[in-house]
Amino acid sequence: MEEVLHINVQSALEKQQQGKARLVDIRDPQSFALAHPTNAFHLTDHTLTQFIQESDYEEPVMVMCYHGISSVGAAQYLLNQGFEEVYTVDGGFEAWSESNCRLRALNDTSHSIQQS
């Protein structure tokens, strides 16, 4: 069985910005709507089929939750579905937002908002 990899926020951001990995956010719809990483895919029970159908199983996937705990189970599930390289983002959205990474609100028409 493949093992879930861990990645820190800065490395995750770099991979995402370089187009070397896809970031998915598994938090609840309200939290995702309030703020989420720019270009993150909102992975839920309702969007899972779409995500799997649209994904390249060879492209690395980084899974984010609130604190980096629930994402481990979701990442393992994706590995079990055949994804080759799956990471959990250590510290989750909390660490992402605390590190001043780019965030976006669902109804935000700009490209991103920078937290300070």
In words, what does this structure look like?
- Belongs to the GlpE family.
- Keywords: Cytoplasm, Transferase.
- This is Thiosulfate sulfurtransferase GlpE.
- Its EC number is 2.8.1.1.
- The chain has 116 residues and is α/β, with parallel strands linked by helices.
- It has a single domain, classed as Rhodanese-like domain (Oxidized Rhodanese, domain 1, 3-Layer(aba) Sandwich).
- 34% of the residues lie in helices and 21% in strands.
- Strand 5, helix 4 and strand 6 form a beta-alpha-beta unit.
- The longest helix has 11 residues.
- The protein is globular, with a radius of gyration of 13 Å.
- The protein starts with a strand and ends with a strand.
CATH superfamily: Rhodanese-like domain
Q: Give the helix/strand class.
A: alpha/beta
What's the helix count?
5
Report the count of strand segments.
8
- H/E order of the elements? EHEHEEHEHEHEE
The general outline is: globular
Estimate the helix proportion, in percent. 25-40%
Largest sheet: 5 strands, parallel
> Distance N terminus to C terminus?
41 Å
- Uncertain stretches: 108-116
- Kindly give the count of domains: 1
Could you tell me the strand content as a percent range?
Answer: 15-25%
- CATH topology group: Oxidized Rhodanese, domain 1
Major beta sheet, strand line-up = 1-6-5-2-4
So what's the CATH class? Alpha Beta
Q: Please tell me the overall pLDDT.
A: 89
Determine Rg (CA atoms, Å): 13 Å
CATH architecture descriptor: 3-Layer(aba) Sandwich
